[in-house]
UniProtKB/TrEMBL annotation:
Family affiliation: Belongs to the leucine-binding protein family.
This protein's UniProt keywords: Amino-acid transport, Signal, Transport
PROSITE patterns named in the record: PROKAR_LIPOPROTEIN (PS51257)
Name of the molecule in the record: ABC transporter substrate-binding protein
Signal peptide: 1-19
Pfam families: Peripla_BP_6
Superkingdom, natural source: Bacteria
Length: 393
């Protein structure tokens, strides 16, 4: 494939973290073989390597997209300040073109086409599973390396050009089920979003693993909800009647915040466990005691000493504590850098091949990638204690 390189970066004066352009760009799929683009690429080749990303910068999932964008920006700033990325006999500065997709599949397609029209070298995205699934076949057709920092649906990586930094939904479900069994919980209820690929995938794998472990009797109640639901009274009433000692909510922090607070209002005396979408839930609850003792899976904890430099840089730049999505964005940029260096080239075929030949010691853990596009890394469980995130012992 003849690569598109950076017309947009020139127009934006090589901005490191470009403001999201929404979906105002063209809906027309990019034609990577056009003569005009080939000539333009030749003029700027060797100067800038553009990372294109789509994710929610507005809407209900905006926290995830903004965190990824901020984390990626810090990594790009660091790399460029250190001189850029040496690839063969050329040195590239990195640039980020981040398009808002509002975590909606149709908008993600438009945003991706806009990125390809503008010229990008690699696609770091999408941020959410639904958007990533909508784009994975398009990136395969364009033969561009795709690395999602946080899209966890299993089918995202089915094409050979696609990799992910985060855990898959099935792996999360399995690890959480093993955790529940190891901790000796006597009964568990599940409340999941049946209109969301992420939540459903984690739930199904959780149930499968309990069955495989001969612990299906632990699951005493299963309830569901749909996108944009904010009233969980009916589901929680059923869960309370079941007597479950643990409530598993595989989902994102916004729904989780409503659920834990309404559970407290109903006087439900049960522990909570969540998937990695819970990261950030403390900022969503009005009463932190509602999530006291909750445990969720996460590859990152800001207070971990190994992440001290990143956390300090993030807090200085954005006046906020970084979450795992910020860490995912940061690490994914360094993975791209490692692939560029290993490949000795910025051609897509070379970058894709290099992905299975690198190992990066990131703030979300040491990571390498297998031929299926999946990461090899260790999980962490985080608990909420006295209104703070702590590593679960």
């Amino acid at each position: 494939m003849k690569k598109r390189v950076l017309l947009s970066a020139m127009a934006l004066t090589f901005g490191l973290a470009l403001t999201a352009c929404g979906n105002a760009g063209s809906d027309k799929a990019a034609d990577s073989g056009s003569k005009a683009e080939t000539e333009a690429a030749a003029k700027v080749d060797g100067d800038v390597f553009t990372i294109g990303t789509t994710g929610p910068l507005t809407g209900s999932a905006a926290s995830y997209g903004n965190s990824v964008k901020n984390g990626a920006t810090i990594a790009i700033d660091e790399i460029n300040a250190a001189g850029g990325v040496k690839v063969g006999d050329k040195t590239y500065k990195l640039a980020l073109n981040f398009q808002d997709d509002e975590a909606k599949e149709d908008k993600a397609v438009n945003a991706y086409n806009n990125l390809m029209d503008s010229g990008i070298n690699v696609f770091m995205g999408a941020v959410t599973s639904g958007s990533s699934l909508a784009l994975t076949d398009l990136t395969a057709k364009d033969n561009i390396l795709q690395i999602t920092p946080s899209g966890s649906a299993k089918a995202i990586t089915e094409n050979p050009n696609v990799f992910r930094l985060c855990f898959t939904d099935p792996l999360q479900g399995k690890m959480i089920a093993d955790f529940v069994v190891d901790q000796g919980y006597e009964s568990v209820a599940v409340l999941y979003n049946n209109s969301d690929e992420y939540s459903t995938g984690v739930y199904e794998a959780f149930k499968e693993e309990l069955n495989a472990a001969g612990k299906s009797d632990l699951l005493v109640n299963e309830q569901s909800f749909t996108n944009d639901d904010v009233d969980f009274t009916t589901q929680l009433t059923q869960i309370k009647a079941s007597g479950a000692k643990l409530i598993f909510v595989p989902g994102y922090y916004e729904a989780a915040a409503y659920i834990v607070q309404q559970a407290k209002q109903q006087g439900i005396d049960a522990a909570f466990v969540g998937s990695d979408g819970w990261d950030g839930v403390l900022s969503q609850v009005t009463d932190p005691s509602a999530v006291e003792g909750a445990v969720f899976l996460s590859p990152f904890l800001a207070s971990d000493p190994s992440a001290a430099d990143f956390t300090k840089a993030y807090e200085t730049a954005y006046k906020a504590t970084p979450d795992q999505f910020a860490a995912d964005g940061y690490d994914t940029v360094y993975v791209i850098k490692a692939a560029m260096e290993k490949a000795g080239s910025i051609k897509s075929d070379d970058l894709i091949k290099a992905m299975t030949e690198i190992e990066v010691n990131g703030i979300t853990g040491k990571v390498s990638f297998n031929a299926d596009g999946e990461p090899n890394k260790e999980p962490k469980f985080v608990t909420i204690t006295n209104g703070e995130y702590k590593l679960f012992d």
